[in-house]
Amino acid sequence: MSEYVVTKIFPKNRKKNEQVIRLLEKENIRRDKNLEYTCGIFDEDNNLIATGSCFGNTLRCLAVASKHQGEGLMNLIVTHLVNYQFKRGIFHLFIYTKAGREDIFKTLGFYEIVTVDDHLVFLENRKNGFENYLNSLHTNVAFDLNQGKNSAIIMNANPFSLGHQYLVEEAAKKSDLVHLFVVSEDSSIFPFSIRKRLIEEGTAHLKNVVLHPTGPYMISNATFPSYFQKDETSVIEGHALLDIKIFQKIAERLAINCRYAGEEPFSLVTGIYNNVMNHELRKVGIEFIELKRKEVNAKIISASKIRQALKANDLKTVKDLVPETTFNYLVSEEALPIIEKIKMTSDVVHY
Predict the structure, then answer these.
(1) What distance in Å separates the CA atoms of residue 129 and residue 81, rounded to the nearest whole number?
(2) Alpha-helical segments (H) within the chain
(3) What are the phi and psi torsion angles at 245 (to 5°)?
(4) Integer Cα distance of 136 and 69 in angstroms
(5) What is the mean pLDDT of residues 82-106?
(6) pLDDT band for position 97 (50/70/90)?
């Protein structure tokens, strides 16, 4: 093993990148489109025999040529990627792997979070990372969790609209307590800190709503490992199953027995997600309620429409679609960098 060296594979090196694609294909893995860094191990004839990549806080597209498996090459690749991540200041790391291959990652300091249908295993490099997150949720709650209807909503709110507000208000009317989870990952146009603040301001009149960050556990589509899935629908369904498995553990800890979501006639991703969620949650005794979307002037409210109106500088439409608290932010000087970013973005519609 000592004669092997892990080297960076540069994006412009077409020959080496073609070798990466071929090696991944032999292991039934598609090269992920979301990769920031790729490395490899080459034999004495300059043939690629092991590779791995990373994106954000995840390690992905890990593969070793079949005739070299068992030589410790995966250990070298993962160790190299972990060191690379640490050097750029990312210390909490995640790996997705096919079921049956997780043991090697466990020997390298990763710990299982959930397994999805004996197909996909989600791991992190913190022994009590997920447990600590679950424990932290209790610190936000000053209610008795063991009585009545405890509901949950998971919301990105990019930005917070009258539609989002309506969903929370309806859940609050029919629940003793609503756990409102705000997607923490900063992959949206509006950063987490702003989205969370606008949600807080837009729900301040509801006294039975508690906000929680999703942390790195209820993840976005941008970081989901599509390279294990055969087509786009499988990617979305697999992502939904993983998210729901994690949500079930959160629901057990917080005694959540109902989950609300808005109807999604325009978003393929969220539409498929809602269908999977409805099926999976009912199997474990959690009620799923999908509310018809709120309309203004006979048109459904969506965050995409708000971003489109901001891009077109149509503040009248924006004002019709958002709470006063959101509108006040959007016309403030603080929002100018985000508005400028929206105007510079070619496509602001949510897929």
Answers:
(1) 20
(2) 14-26, 73-87, 102-106, 129-138, 162-173, 192-202, 232-254, 268-283, 303-311, 315-321, 324-330, 336-344
(3) -60, -45
(4) 40
(5) 92
(6) confident
Query: Across-strand partners of 42?
Result: 48
- Cα-to-chain-centroid distance, residue 276: 16
CA 342 centroid distance within chain: 21
Please list, in sequence order, all residues whose beta carbon lies within 8 angstroms of the beta carbon of residue 151, skipping any fewer than 6 positions away: 171, 174, 175, 177, 178, 179, 256, 257, 258, 259, 260
Please name the fold of domain 142-344: Rossmann fold (3.40.50)
Q: Has residue 211 got a pLDDT over 70? A: yes
Average pLDDT over residues 200-222: 88
Q: What is the DSSP letter of 210?
A: E
**Helix %, strand %, coil % for the chain, to 5?**
40, 20, 35
Q: Where along the chain do the CATH 3.40.50.620 domains lie? A: 142-344
Structure tokens at 119: 């197909």
Is the CB of residue 214 less than 8 Å from the CB of residue 182?
yes
CB 299 within 8 A of CB 210: no
The dihedral of CA 265, 196, 59, 81: what is its sign? positive
CA atoms within 13 A on the CB side of 319: 6
List phi, psi (to 5°) of 144.
Answer: -75, 115
Query: What count of Cα atoms within 13 Å lies in the side-chain half-sphere of residue 230?
Result: 0
Tell me the C-alpha distance between 206 and 213, whole Å.
18
Mean model confidence pLDDT for the chain:
90
Higher pLDDT, 295 or 175: 175
Give tens-digit pLDDT for 269-296: 778 888 999 999 999 999 999 999 888 8
Domain 6-93 has CATH 3.20.20.70: no
